[in-house]
Amino acid sequence: MNILKMTEQVAAELDAKLSAERKRHSIQCAVMAADLALKFRGVHPDRAYLAGLGHDILRDLSEKETLLTAQGLGAGKLIKRFAGWGHELIHAPLGAIYLRARYCVPADVFNAIEFHSTGSPRPGRLLLILMISDFCEPGREYPEAARLRSRISGPGFTKEALSFMAREVLKYKLEYLLNRNKPVCPASVGAYNYLCRITGITQ
Ligand SMILES: [Fe+2]
Ligand SMILES: [Fe+2]
Question: What is the CATH number of domain 3-198?
Fold first, then answer.
């Protein structure tokens, strides 16, 4: 199945699987991801759009539905791996597995969706784009998102800025958890440290 056909079918699935608000978020995230991909070499905008559109496809499942879906996809290990980290985190890897099983989505789309919540210690460019778009698509109203959006539309948004922006996204997410005395997933710490290194912060 080609990427446009996949995108069409994923879009149709969102109607049945997501609330109107979540669907709007997914579409706005897809549009922003495609826009960012157009600015950089190495990521095709159609793939970025698909990643944005599908990244939350299983986000509205209940805990029980998540468990059943994971078992149905032979991904029961995910439940153990994410035990204790809250039901919210698992929708990312499970959504990636679901989309691969159903549509055979390309590896970079799979990888971006798999890690869009936590980040990854080895992020590809599409993952960085998806993390940024997920955090600050135009429907995100918190001030941090507005601040990042204004930087993205400014003149200094270069290839290097992609890593910088993704680092800012993770920083906000980590601050949010730490300020509420919540634990932080090790994958997010690894991702943040990696982005610090490649953006020149070594200590
Ligand atoms: Fe998500
Ligand atoms: Fe999202």
Answer: 1.10.3210.10
